[in-house]
Design goal:
The protein has 86 residues and is mostly helical. It has one domain. Helices cover 21% and strands 5% of the residues. It has two helices and two strands. Strands 1-2 form a two-stranded antiparallel sheet. It is globular and about 30 Å long. The N terminus is likely disordered.
Length: 86
């Protein structure tokens, strides 16, 4: 059994962020599943761009959300994370 697990781990290495994504999503990010910190992630650590970030004045904030944009993906606070110019 241990040999099988070691073989699978060698064939299908797991990225720590991928593992975290499968376990939990931070509610601060509406349209994507990004794990809460730690670790602190940067836009280079996630594959998505131009996703919604809840702001304190939004009318549809998830119940109990108090930590808005914990990874600081929305530097200009316009509600869009990891903005990519088109």
């Amino acid at each position: 059994m241990i040999l099988l697990m070691a073989t699978l781990a060698a064939v299908f290495p797991l990225n720590p962020v991928t593992v975290a994504l499968e376990k939990t999503c931070d509610p601060a990010y509406a349209e994507v599943c990004i794990p809460p910190p730690p670790p602190d992630l940067d836009c280079g650590d996630v594959l998505v761009r131009n996703f919604r970030v809840y702001l304190p004045n939004d009318s549809d904030i998830p119940t109990g959300l108090t930590d808005f944009d914990p990874h600081h993906f929305d530097g200009d606070e316009d509600g869009i994370g990891c903005e990519q110019q088109r």
